[in-house]
Amino acid sequence: MTIKKIDIPFYERFALVIIGIVGIGYLIDAGKEILDPLVFGFLFAILLLPIANFLEKKLRLPRSASSFLSIILLVAFIGCIVYLVSNQISNLSGDWPMLKKQIAESIENIKHWLQYAFNIDTDEQTEYVTNTTRKIMSSGGAVISTTFGAVSSLALFYLFIIVFTFFILFYRRLLYFFILSVFSKEHEVVVKDIILNIQNILRQYILGLLIEMVVVAGVACALFWIIGIKYAALLGLLVGLFNIIPYLGIFTALLLCVLITFATGSINNVVWVGISVISIHAIDANVLLPTIVGSKVRLNALITFLGIVLGEMIWGLSGMFLSIPVIAIAKIVMDRIEHLKPWGYLLGGDYEYKPSAEKKMKTE
What we know:
Layout: H1 10-30, H2 32-57, H3 63-94, H4 96-118, H5 122-138, H6 140-170, H7 172-182, H8 188-227, H9 232-242, H10 249-264, H11 267-294, H12 301-315, H13 317-335, H14 341-347
Helix pairs in contact: 2-3, 2-6, 2-13, 3-6, 3-9, 8-9, 8-11, 8-13, 9-10, 10-11, 12-13, 13-14
């Protein structure tokens, strides 16, 4: 008996794809509380896998100890960055009286400009600011309660990331053989190739981002020091950290740098800082990003930007971070499944697909 193959028209297949994407998007949005830290844990586990393997094989540590020690090293690295930034911020707070005076003078200048440009009396401006401040203070209890709740949720979110990272590292072999057993034997080579490429590309992508962050922060610190900015190290670190957020991060860094420089220096310095940040972003986008990161994840700019916007709409700030790795995983899968190759080509760019050779997985 011959089974007749049903040829479904493209518009029907496209409609099914759209319905599937909408359904998956709804489930992702509904499961944010658990999926968000789980995806971060997956990325950190991939990043820490070589360290865990080294501790387990070379130092003969048990799997639980190697996984836990790898996480401790990651937390220590992040702690060093937080310490550097907080140390610079504490220096900034030491000059608070000067900052307060500078801000007060700036506010007075803005008031006079508004009076001259829009004919709004300074007394009316002061009354409006006073009323607004009074309303904010009257709801101070609610603000404090909301802030405390946000901090508690953030701490719990980080704890979940650490727990998920540990369990993914600890049960990595179990998860690997589970994925292989889900598919039939004839697809084993393709599945192994997908797992290997996801592992390698995501690790290279994360390391590339870290290298890019260090280079951008170093260049920004050097430029701000040459210009003579008082808090050159703090502003350079901010530029490097916010640069991790594609497209939108550099504008946030520009705003913070301009505001801090405006409160602590002259207009000349503000202009030079703005020019420096924009120049760094231009060099980073055209030289560093394609060289360090772009070669790891082949995604075109349109899909990348669309993914960042959708990620922010669904999961907020964490969605912006995770959008590129998630799209990269989808592209790796699509490039290796015959019927999905056109979609993989759409996510990438105008280049010829070349399947990679099968390599041995390092999951032992």
